[in-house]
Amino acid sequence: MTTRWNSECVKCMTNKFLGAYPESSTEAERMEYMRRVFSILSSVQPEEGAPVVTDYILKLQKELFGYTFDFTEIKQTFNKLMLEQEPAIAANISSSPDPIRRAVQYVMTGNYIDFGALDNVDRETLFELLSKADSQEIDEKIFRELYADLETARRLAYITDNCGEIVLDKLLIQAIQSRFPDIQVNIIVRGMPALNDATMEDAVQAGLTDIAAVTGNGTGITGTYLPKISSEASEIIHNADVLISKGQGNFETLRGCGLNIYYIFLCKCQLFTKRFNKKQYEGILTNEKYY
User: In terms of C-beta density within 10 A (0-12 exposed, 13-18 middle, 19 or more buried), how is residue 87 classed?
Assistant: First the structure.
């Protein structure tokens, strides 16, 4: 059994959610909420991990206060923002000696748009990171393995993460389709709202539905927790010859599953910078077999 819950996650989740109640709530309501947050944190199963726990707490907020924060406007804003950047980034990718490599660098960088892992997503920081995307280091051995797998693959499952960055996912998928036109691509998004993670509405806005089949995974978990996703999404994932998984949340929930998954994300929180010996906002390309 893969252990996905640890002390760093407990500290992070406590800081993020313990005080996440409405200002209008009563003292009794706040104490009940805090007591039940502690109960959730103390009863997490080792294999569940932070994205599953986030789902538990968001459902608790809905139960006690009748709400969870609505990210719809934020998601639409960042999708639009990245769509405005798309022509210039697409030109940079297509003019690169290796469009797939350059697209992977942009996909790493775009993973900055994460309201779950970061307290604040700053546009200036995003644009600065994007301007230096071509300096993101890529593990050459793993990149060669990805390329070799794509050369022989018939089915690729691409598991998305956040709003906005899905525009960059689209550009990577198009680069792969251009080089390997016989690959059947299936894109998976969240099945229900989950912080600023991409859902079907975001896929439509970003144009993902124009380039490949898109499927919701049936859950509102900020990751891909295989025991809880829909049978349709599970079939796509398990029948794929190669998978690309975006973001820290997907890594946390899929790590240890044994499938041929290539993980792409930006190291944003302390757990990941320590685990991969990286600085904050440095990217990772790795494969499931190494974890």
Answer: exposed
Q: Are 174 and 156 in contact (CB under 8 A)?
A: no
CA 51 to chain centre: 10
Q: Which token pair is 157?
A: 């499952």
The CA-based angle 274-198-71, given to 5 degrees, is 95
Separation of alpha carbons 245 and 51, rounded Å: 15
Contact between residue 260 and residue 287 where contact means Cβ atoms under 8 Å apart: yes
Query: Could you tell me the two tokens for 64?
Result: 């006690």
Q: How many CA atoms lie within 13 A of 203 on its CB side?
A: 24
Residues 141-175: pLDDT tens digits? 999 999 999 999 999 999 999 999 999 999 999 99
223 SS3 class: coil
Rounded distance between C-alpha atoms, residue 243 and residue 21, angstroms: 38
Q: What is the tens place of the pLDDT at every residue in 121-143?
A: 999 999 999 999 999 999 999 99
Please report how the helices 7-17 and 27-42 are oriented relative to each other, as an axis angle in degrees rounded to 10.
170
